[in-house]
Design a protein that fits this description.
single chain, 239 residues, alpha+beta, Arc Repressor Mutant, subunit A, Alpha-Beta Plaits, 4-stranded antiparallel sheet, 8 helices, globular, Probable transcriptional regulatory protein FCL54_11245
């Protein structure tokens, strides 16, 4: 699964360069999670997951606190979680997850992003069947064997563990996310290189340089949209 890790690294690197944008997206996601349940992460698994992700992106505490306080204050902003599927240049596949308070605006913006960058929208299910929901957790300073030993001690069986750039990357079932993290925390590991629930393509595809340039523009256009939270795809951007 090394190529899949390449895509995750590329995604994190791109987001790390756009801190204001990613902070705003996290603020919205934290607000929604806190409003849908208890504003306490120990009592709200969805909120706990978002905060774990936010930590890997170094989201400032004041942004987190402001979003949670907004939810506590009974703000009447309501957001719908919507997923769009589509095709990019050379038949590439994309999944776009959004949080929106205006469905018509979001649908129009996402459709325009596809249309202006060599792609087109698909119907529900046209792409998602080629992706697997996956928990991905990375820790520095441990080998794959050492990570496996920690998980075995907690009787946790995962899909795969790889090792790259002094990082052990664990691929697990989505419902194992917290268990894997807790196992590492029990072993004294508090910082995670990556902590994501993502959609991984079953097969990554390469693109020629001209198509890759157009594809990357499509990704950038989608991720620049205010309502878009995540974009998943099946292109190996690490090549």
């Amino acid at each position: 699964m090394g190529r899949k890790w390449n895509n995750i690294k590329e995604k994190k690197a791109a987001k790390d360069k756009n801190t204001s944008r990613i902070y705003a997206k996290f603020g919205r996601e934290i607000y929604v999670a806190a409003k849908q349940g208890e504003p306490d992460p120990e009592l709200n698994q969805s909120l706990k997951f978002v905060l774990e992700r936010a930590k890997t992106y170094n989201v400032p505490k004041h942004i987190i606190d402001r979003a949670i306080e907004k939810a506590k204050g009974g703000a009447d902003e309501n957001y719908d979680e919507l997923r769009y599927e589509g095709f990019g240049p050379n038949g590439t596949m994309l999944i776009v997850d959004t949080l929106t308070n205006n469905v018509n605006r979001t649908a129009s913006d996402v459709r325009a992003a596809f249309g202006k960058n060599g792609g087109n929208m698909g119907v529900n299910g046209s792409v998602a069947y080629m992706f697997d929901a996956t928990a991905v957790i990375g820790i520095e300073g441990k080998t794959a064997d050492e990570a496996l030993e920690i998980l075995m001690e907690e009787d946790i069986d995962v899909r795969d563990i790889i090792e790259e750039d002094d990082v052990a990357i664990v691929y697990a079932e989505p419902d194992q996310f917290h268990a894997v993290q807790q196992a590492f925390k029990n072993a004294g590991i508090e910082d995670f290189t990556v902590a994501e629930l993502t959609m991984l393509a079953q097969n990554d595809v390469p693109l020629p340089d001209d198509a890759k340039e157009q594809f990357e523009k499509l990704i950038d256009t989608l991720e620049d949209l205010e309502d878009v939270q995540q974009v998943y795809h099946n292109v190996d951007l690490g090549e």
